[in-house]
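Z., the sequence and structure:
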Amino acid sequence: MKSIRTPEDRFKNLSNYPFSANYLEVDGIRMHYVDEGPKDGRVILMMHGEPSWSYLYRHMIPVCVAAGHRVIAPDLIGFGKSDKLTDINDYSYKSHMDWMQSFIDQLELTNITLVCQDWGSLIGLRLAAENEPRFNAIVLGNGMLPTGDEGRIPKAFKIWQNFAIYSPWFPIARIVESGTFKGFSKEERRAYNAPFPSSKYKAGARAFPRLVPTTPNDPANSANKEAWKIFEKWQKPFLTLFSNGDPIMRGMDKIFLKRVPGCKEMPHKTLIGGHFLQEDSGAVFAQAVNNLVDNVDKVNKALG
């Protein structure tokens, strides 16, 4: 697999992103992650989606760190400060799962509260199901774990799939901005574009939409169905924080509320925002995460 690395000067003086860079290798590829807060703090694993990176969580990380928690926010391979594979065919759902499994293994993460959205949920939820003893709680915002058996595919998602595959123009910052209620500043657009100096860096971003399981014969169908079996018995805290303005994910929180026992009696909320609710309601999102983490031991103890 051929990989390239975004020049470091692309990330200089990014707005509201003062975090130190940390790196490890997965399958011979360098992966970047934010690691803020006390090393013995409760671990909050924040996973971004498509086509964003850990910059998406810049407003949430300080709030959670201020509460005494350790926040780890990786950049998926192909995004942010992590290396980018140049061949779109080198990306697969399984490869992303393998890379993230290696990531949590190398950092020896346990007692994890997962915070995930978009593709961060497709990878993160599978990761939690396949490593259930290592996860204490889950906070899901605008995400899903599709198997391909769902049937109807939202029209908005079909349009997005075709755009990602066929459009010669793929403006990362504008794509993220279109999924928010707010407008971006010039500096915020620069930050979202920073990982992608040219089109050859965007293979990972273009790959994700077509990797979402949409048919029963998808390669991820069996593994995702096995993950759902875990979640249908999941008693640990499972909080949904979906937004009111996401045309693709709106209403999917009801699936989890119905199928996951850990959702019962949780303080679920509908936040104000678009698909990228971290941009529109980051402080509220972060405080809800803090409240859950601070009470997770009490909840899990009550569950026995």
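The longest strand covers residues 29-36. The radius of gyration is 18 Å.

Let me know what you think.
H.
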